[in-house]
């Protein structure tokens, strides 16, 4: 989603600015969806190969880890530290998920933790009425409806730690470049590997648009599903839940109750059976001496 970023020190956005934001958001949601449908039609007609699947999964992991390990655990919660070039790659990879510029994503998620499931939460599924109607309205709002309310509804605040960070500013300002690169790269690779324009097209569809579509909904499911359905290992003040299905598609982010109980922990899957691929990546970086100061849930605070 392409959204205009405003800190709390700037004047409130005009109605025209909100309208532009809503239009950009609609485009960023609809285009990947149309790309996903087109890729599905071509696959149905057997216009698809192993190269397309490989490009989809590789780009899904790159952009997915960019969001989970980069935007979320590194930049938002500062769960670990790493060299500048690794931070840069994390930020570029996260931008390829097309979920907004770095500062917007971080500010929104920090606000979610500050006001989780109470007034001020940007995307809580609660407080939208009773019964089935309220549930549907809440799910819609938490999943993607909140993005159409404009930048003022996001109530983004200043980010002094990132605004002083040259690498973070470069990642934020180059968002459109990195996002487009995430679509152009699989198209080029598809064309070169399959030696055809059709290979470039299917590479663009599967490694680009379809991958963005799936990544979008995997991430948004943490906002919606993981505040409605799942288990609670910790008695947090909100209604966050652990959901293994969401954890699988979101590379470990679905252990959301664990995360809300220990926001700064680099590891979200706290039980041995709670698969957390993002933690495995961070652990690997730690062993390679490419990560340091890794924050973990304190001993004795993990569920039995």
Key features of this structure:
single chain; 304 residues; mainly alpha; globular
Summary?
With 304 residues, this protein is mainly α. The protein is built from 13 helices and no strands. The model is unreliable at 1-13 and 152-156 (pLDDT under 50).
Detailed description of the structure:
- The longest helix is centred in the N-terminal third of the chain and has 30 residues, at 15-44.
- The model is unreliable at 1-13 and 152-156 (pLDDT under 50).
- By secondary structure, this protein is mostly helical.
- Helix 3 runs parallel beside helix 8 (166-173).
- The chain has one domain (21-287).
- It starts with 14 loop residues before the first helix and ends in a 17-residue tail after the last helix.
- The protein is built from 13 helices and no strands.
Distance between the termini: 39 Å
Number of strands: 0
Shape: globular
Order of helices and strands: HHHHHHHHHHHHH
Strand content: under 5%
- Report the mean per-residue pLDDT as an integer: 90
**Largest sheet report:** none
How many domain modules?
1
Instruction: Assign the structural class, choosing from mainly alpha, mainly beta, alpha/beta, alpha+beta, or little secondary structure.
Output: mainly alpha
Low-pLDDT stretches are 1-13, 152-156
Report the helical percentage.
55-70%
| Tally of DSSP helical segments | 13
Write the layout of secondary structure elements.
Layout: H1 15-44, H2 50-76, H3 84-95, H4 102-114, H5 131-143, H6 151-154, H7 160-163, H8 166-173, H9 175-194, H10 197-224, H11 244-249, H12 256-261, H13 277-287
């Amino acid at each position: 989603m392409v959204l205009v970023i405003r800190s709390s020190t700037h004047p409130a956005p005009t109605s025209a600015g909100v309208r532009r934001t809503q239009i950009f958001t609609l485009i960023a949601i609809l285009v990947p969806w149309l790309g996903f449908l087109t890729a599905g039609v071509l696959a149905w007609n057997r216009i698809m190969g192993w190269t397309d699947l490989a490009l989809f999964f590789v780009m899904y992991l790159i952009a997915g880890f960019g969001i989970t390990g980069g935007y979320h655990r590194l930049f938002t919660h500062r769960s670990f530290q790493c060299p500048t070039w690794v931070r840069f790659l994390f930020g570029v990879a996260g931008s390829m998920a097309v979920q907004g510029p770095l500062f917007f994503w971080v500010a929104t998620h920090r606000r979610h933790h500050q006001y989780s499931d109470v007034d001020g939460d940007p995307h809580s599924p609660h407080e939208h009425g009773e019964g089935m109607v309220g549930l549907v309205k809440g799910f819609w709002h938490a999943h993607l409806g909140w993005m159409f309310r404009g930048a003022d509804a996001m109530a983004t605040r200043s980010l002094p730690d990132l605004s002083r960070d040259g690498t973070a500013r470069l990642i934020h300002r180059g968002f459109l470049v990195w996002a487009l690169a995430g679509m152009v790269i699989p198209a080029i690779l598809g064309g070169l590997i399959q030696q055809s324009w059709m290979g470039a097209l299917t590479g663009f569809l599967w490694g680009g648009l379809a991958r963005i579509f799936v990544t979008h909904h995997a991430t948004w499911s943490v906002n919606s599903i993981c505040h409605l359905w799942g288990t609670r290992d910790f008695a947090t003040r909100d209604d966050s839940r652990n959901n293994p299905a969401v954890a699988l598609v979101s590379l470990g982010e679905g252990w959301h109750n664990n995360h809300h109980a220990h926001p700064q922990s680099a590891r979200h899957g706290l039980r041995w059976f709670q698969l957390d691929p993002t933690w495995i990546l961070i652990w690997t970086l730690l062993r390679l001496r490419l990560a340091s100061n890794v924050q973990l849930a304190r001993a004795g605070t993990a569920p039995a």
